[in-house]
Design goal:
568 residues, alpha+beta, Membrane-bound Lytic Murein Transglycosylase D, Chain A, ten-stranded antiparallel sheet, two-stranded antiparallel ribbon, 14 helices, 21% helix, Dup_hybrid_motif, LysM_dom_sf, M23ase_b-sheet_dom, LysM peptidoglycan-binding domain-containing protein
Length: 568
């Protein structure tokens, strides 16, 4: 896809600009260079660059550091973007631009291409730092070049005004790419997902491996943070890869690995239980690709996903359900804190579930989402009863909803008429005990500590009978907090009592929450890798010292983080 986008940009440059009287200079290959990268940075089409340097097959060509290649003399300059650690066009201030209003179905690359602009130029003129993460909004106004070429019609071997032939292969690539994009908007190319209790908008996109921007676009969702998801609602997702048993192939779920110093393609493949060929194919690379520190490389997720049966099968017994959600109507005098307590929730859960923040105001008769009562089961269990004055065997049996004969048998009482009941004696009885669902067999996880510090408050109930659904880690103001695992940001806002809060959804039904932050470096919809910097230690909310509140939940149920974090 990357190569096709580059070819597309190159082809547009052939169509839009004259190649007459070009000057070529020598370029010495440096560490990290690629053939297409060199061509792109010098404003050349792929075919022009390869032909000029007598390179017949770009995929088989072995690029050598220090090698000299012919390139076009630059008519513009590149500037280094210190934020994104990459090069971008230095925008030509004399160039004419006009306003463009974003329409439904638009993409960043599509707008740039249709106006004869490179991705870098388009992003630079519109102050877009990362077009992969940028969330286009319908009706938004962006700057585009005046040389609009939205409709391109080219005949084979057509000549431009200076007699240069247009590369037919590149034109065909453009046509195929446009046709593919049009086909991708056909409903037949999507699966339909039925929204279930506990689902979230970004979570559905993440679980189905559908890029967030594409997920929002194909479902015509313009304001995801305001969108109210409804149980039973039908949404489009990208087709899920299934094996012969019609089950989702966990191995084919991908995550992103950020290249570090000393990494090699072979080592990355081995560490992620992949063959080198699988890694190269997944990323569209060849064996000669030179890794750069900070590169994002796709790898197959090693986590053992327990996703048997179709995602849309709501009667599936092999996939555990998220905690059920029900509606609650606000009554006069209600507060969110009291509602959360009554429903066995905390404010982090009730705020994130309803897309609220600390400025939100609830109104009488307003409907909000709350967790339904936990799944429970009842059973008769053995217990003991201390006999009180006035008790009889009949009354004890009746009060414990037991048959008298069962009480006698349980206590080995052979003769009812000759048995003397004494106050203070202990009898065995059966009592009805209610237990709630707990998860002893949690799926595989690979969490890391979001911050290394002293744990000042553990999971559970303290001496004041106050419940803590996570752990509190003391820290230093401004220290970095990182994502505990790969996932998608579902919430990034302020919650009363917890300050700045980030919630991340992960694979296998897990979510993590990070609270009392001084600031958040990510927003809802962002994809984060394990160890990515997401915020800073602070003392926001109802605390008076610098610390991090960290919580792990599984299918909506809080889990002691120390069960899943590395030991020691």
């Amino acid at each position: 896809m990357i190569k096709n986008n580059i070819l597309k940009i190159f082809a547009v440059s052939i169509l839009s600009y004259s190649l007459f009287g070009e000057n070529y200079i020598n370029y010495k290959v440096e560490n990290g260079d690629t053939l297409y990268g060199i061509a792109f940075s010098h404003g050349m089409s792929a075919s022009e660059f390869l032909k000029l340097n007598n390179i017949e097959d770009a995929d088989k060509y072995n690029l050598k550091i220090g090698e000299t290649l012919k390139v076009k003399e630059k008519e513009y300059s590149l500037v280094f973007d210190s934020v994104n650690k990459s090069y971008a066009f230095d925008v030509d201030k004399s160039k004419s631009y006009k306003n463009y209003k974003v329409k439904s179905g638009d993409t960043v690359l599509g707008i740039a291409f249709s106006h004869g602009m490179s991705a870098s130029e388009f992003c630079a003129i519109n102050n877009i730092k990362d077009f992969n993460k940028y969330n286009l909004k319908v009706g938004e106004i962006l700057k585009v070049a005046n040389n609009n070429i939205e409709k391109v019609s080219i005949k084979e071997n057509e000549k431009n005004s200076y007699g240069n032939s247009v590369d037919r292969n590149l034109v065909e690539n453009i046509k195929k790419e446009i046709e593919a994009n049009n086909q991708n908007n056909n409903d037949n190319n999507f699966e339909i997902y039925t929204v279930r209790s506990g689902d979230t908008l970004f979570g559905i996109a993440f679980d189905s491996d559908t890029p967030v921007n594409d997920f929002l676009r194909i479902n015509n969702i313009e304001s995801p943070l305001k969108y109210k998801l409804k149980i039973g609602e039908k949404l489009k997702i990208f087709p899920q890869k299934k094996n012969q048993n019609n089950t989702i192939d966990a191995k084919k779920i991908t995550s992103v690995y950020k290249v570090q110093k000393g990494d090699t393609l072979s080592a990355i493949a081995i560490n992620n239980s992949m063959s080198l060929n699988e890694l190269l194919e997944l990323n569209g690379l060849n064996r000669n690709y030179l890794l750069k520190i900070g590169d994002n490389i796709k790898v197959y997720n090693k986590v053992n996903l327990n996703l048997n049966n179709n995602l849309n099968n709501q009667n599936s017994t092999s996939k555990r359900e998220y905690r059920k959600i029900e509606n609650y109507k606000i009554k006069k005098g209600d507060t969110l804190s009291e509602i959360a307590l009554a429903k066995g929730m905390d404010l982090v859960e009730i705020y994130s579930l309803n897309g609220l923040n600390d400025k939100s105001i609830i109104k009488v008769d307003e409907i909000i989402k709350v967790y339904a009562e936990k799944d429970k089961k009842t059973a008769l269990v053995d217990s003991t009863y201390s006999v009180k004055k006035g008790d009889t065997l009949y009354s004890i049996a009746r009060n414990h909803k037991m048959v008298l004969s069962d009480l006698l048998k349980l206590n080995d009482i052979k003769d009812l008429n000759n048995y003397t009941l004494q106050a203070g004696a202990t009898l065995k009885v059966k009592v009805l005990k209610t237990t709630y669902t707990d998860f002893d067999d949690l799926p595989e996880s690979s969490f890391i500590f979001p911050y290394r510090g002293s744990i000042v408050s553990k999971y559970g109930t303290d001496e004041n009978n106050l419940a803590n659904r996570g752990i509190n880690i003391s820290g230093k103001a401004g220290d970095k907090v990182v994502a505990a695992d790969y996932g998608i940001v579902e919430y990034s806002d302020n919650i009363r009592g917890f300050g700045k809060v980030i919630i991340i959804k992960h694979k296998n039904g897990y979510t993590t929450a990070y609270a009392h932050l001084s600031d958040a470096k990510v927003k809802a919809g962002d994809i984060v890798n394990k160890g990515d910097y997401i915020g800073n230690i602070g003392e926001t909310g109802m605390i008076n010292k610098n610390e991090l509140y960290f919580k792990i939940s599984y299918l909506g149920m809080p889990i002691d983080p120390l069960r899943l974090l590395p030991k020691g």
